[in-house]
Amino acid sequence: MKMQQEKIEFKRDLKLLDATMIVVGSMIGSGIFIVSADIARTVGGGGMLLLVWAITGIVTLIAALSYGELAGMMPKAGGQYVYLREAYNPFVGFLYGWTLFAVIQTGTIAAVGVAFAKYTGVLIPVFSEKNILFQLGSLSVSAAQVLSIITITFLTWLNIQGVHTGKIVQNLFTSTKVIALIGLIILGIILGSNASASVANFNNFWSVDLSKWDSLALIPTGTPMTFAIIAAIGTAMVGSLFSSDAWNNITFTAGEVVNPKRTIPLSLALGTGIVTLLYILANIAYIVVLPVVGDANSAEVLGRGIQFATTDRVGAAAAEVIFGGGGAIIMAALIMVSTFGCNNGLILSGARVYYAMAKDGLFFKKTGELNSKGVPAIALIVQGIWASLLCLSGKYGDLLDYVVTAVLIFYILTIYGIFILRRKQPNAERPYKAIGYPVLPALYILIAGAIIIDLILLKWDTTKWGLAIILTGIPVYFIWHRNSK
Fold this sequence. Notes:
Layout: H1 2-7, H2 16-27, H3 36-43, H4 46-73, H5 80-87, H6 90-123, E1 132-136, E2 139-142, H7 143-160, H8 163-190, H9 195-203, H10 225-243, H11 249-252, H12 260-289, H13 301-304, H14 314-323, H15 327-359, H16 377-393, H17 396-402, H18 404-424, H19 439-458, H20 460-484
Antiparallel strand pairs: 1-2
């Protein structure tokens, strides 16, 4: 049996199109249809809204282009975990893998699964969050939570059947949602353009509204307004950064990519570029269809604007203006497709990190084995179980908010790893080198570092939990390390 296990290897079945679809599909979930409302409340006018998305896109592109060098150097299953292990040591790599498993990957899977269920509830009311199936003390379980667990279980089972099955699902749902999103953008700009909304938005394009900002009280009196605006932009980027995250997931699957030294860097550049363009165009569509500034007490879609779209569903509000009463149904169907495909990419790729950790003796031993289809089935199952428990916790939304800082810390460490490896391994094969090195990677580190400082100063209540989750990995590492010896 042991000899048979040793012969089973990953199957290189992911080509450039497949890899790009994993990047695009994992990035586009439900965020683009929702978070613009909170961004608009935080910073004000349409110009500021687009600026936040543009900065997010630039930062993401720089990071993705920088990761290309590491992907070319180390085309191994586990991706970012491997980069951190090689640039620093196994301890730093483990802290990343631990945080990924504890909340980054599994918490995102849970949140995306519940988003799928919420919008299913629009079409099939029995799956509504308000439909509580049973309650035990403070724990209540809704039909939406149950449906999210069912979808996570189903997608986990699909991916256990092999990477070929997983990529077919990914390509189908990603292409469908990209085409639908492009359609929404075109129809919004051409058919949904609202003269009064456009005039209001473009007359006050660069207006800044910081009235929501109770946390600005933390900024000393007399601080220049420019600093306050920069602080607001940094905090507003929490939502857009999460909506643009998960682009690095393709690096986890390097063991299954055809010609990974070329394919992964290209897919990172293409995928993040496509999504950044789509996100900016989607927000342009929003501001020609809806006024940015709105009234929370208005009963009308246009009256509420982007800032106060009902339950922050900006995409649904835009669709209602474009399509009338059927807009909510169309948007619900689009988000169902989007979130289903997003979760498939997250589930497919995340398990490869736990596989790599197990090979290093830093995770459950069984998660380091491949099944007869050449995929880490036990790692997929363990990931699915924990994500399902997070669905039941009801805290998945909070968990995502907690880890923005943690995600950025590991991105900074990984990109700084390029500088370290250039010194440690100057003669290593680098089929692709980070564009703009050392300026662009250093610029990313500075921008991401500034956002972390901003969040620590102004959103400590949520930021501290992200740091705490990382710190819990310290004793776990030493326990695992001792046992592996």
